[in-house]
Amino acid sequence: MKEKGILFILSGPSGVGKGTVRKRLFETSTNLQYSISVTTREKRPGEVDGVDYFYKTRNEFEELIRNGELLEYAEYVNNYYGTPRKYVEETLEKGLDVFLEIEVQGAMQVKENFPEGVFIFLFPPSLEELKNRIVNRGTESEELVINRLKEARKEIDMMDAYDYVVVNDSVDKAVEKIKAIIQAEHLKRERIAKQYKRILEDE
Question: Measuring CA to CA, which of 103, 124, 146, 167 is 20 to 30 A from 63?
Answer without folding.
Answer: 103
